[in-house]
Amino acid sequence: MTRQERALRTRRMILEAAAEMFNELGYDATTISGLIDRIQLTRGGLYFHFTSKEELARGVLEEAISLDGFVPQAFKLQEWADLALLLAHRLPREPVLSAGIRLSVDIKAREMFGTRWPDWTEMGNEILTEAKDRGELLPHVDPCETARLFVGAWTGVHLLTEVLPDGDLSKEVSGLLALVLPNVACAGVLAKLDTSPYRAERLLVAAGVPQPS
Known about the structure:
Layout: H1 3-25, H2 32-39, H3 43-49, H4 53-62, H5 76-90, H6 95-105, H7 107-113, H8 117-133, H9 143-163, H10 169-180, H11 187-190, H12 199-206
């Protein structure tokens, strides 16, 4: 392993450990000292990669937009659904992704760093706008409004699922899509969309993306 590879691996290990602490403790209660104890790294070794807790939070948020497993589809609405399903499958398994949402709902962290919700909304808006241009959407559907409301609904479903006994985010988001899509998709397109809670796992396997346990 080269020095650069070791440095990248160490940086990733630090970021994932910090993300786990943000998830468990929240932003305010997470400390550099606690992180050093957890990962058994010297303070100098940590500061080589991240000089502060604020920089760690920004590093987490930088990775909150991830398209692993996403591939173009025949229908843009399928791509839109795939984004929602892929994130639902990956988020409980990837601390950095879940910490991005945790920081976004933390008032203090949100005031300091903002959120990636506008980026997800814009991505959805671009896909839905193209879907409308292709005739996949019902005439009354506003792509921007739909993208914004869906990001809000997806986030709410995630937060609720966390406190449900045996909550399964993939199944809940699949259910959300089953409610939303009939109100936005043309009938001929709707019948051809796959919103199974297992679709994301199949996409990731087909793309050769390593699957966390």
